[in-house]
What we know:
By secondary structure, this protein is mainly alpha-helical.
Amino acid sequence: MFYTPVTTRISLPYATLGIIAINVVIYFIQSISPVYYNYFVLNFGLIPYEIISGVNLQTLITSMFIHGSFVHIFFNMYILLIFGPAVERKYGPALFIVFYIFCGVLAGVIHSYITFLFIPVEAYTITIGASGAIFGVMAAYAVNYPNQYLFLFFFTPLKAYIAITLFFVLETVLGLAGLFGVSSSIAHFAHVGGFIAGVIFALIYRQLTRRGPKIKKERDIEIIYL
């Protein structure tokens, strides 16, 4: 069960909801028939070899809006709905969209290079999904709201920066396992790349805005159950 933020300023997370809506609409179009599904995956999915070769670079963005199954899109959009609004409040809708795309693109680039260099047999495997960008959102949440508590599967509550860092460590371990022959259909290093992008963006934003005018902080009360 999740509890959403309660703040002193109420505003709809238009960018987050818009991104979710686009993903859902595209998924339902994909689901009309196998022909539609294959068309979207084959034309808009990311192929690591192509990215390394400088071909079809637009798929670094388009692949973020394609999903392989209902479970795939459900969990991605669910997590985005949990963490996205708080991060969007921090950056504003327009910058949040830029941030989201930045995380997804860097995730795709890192995934492509690692796959090409260390698992070349999978360099032609199509990659789809928004997970890289969403890991970026989670990372930015951890940087901006480090002391909020997350309850992981009803166990001991952990501060956000600890809980989300544990996810990052897990994905890194699983990614390294893949380099040593452990088969997986999940692009773990795309998750790692998205996380790194989220941290980089959040820290740069903090540094650039540190000398700006003092703004009264909102009081965020948030309990999240995962």
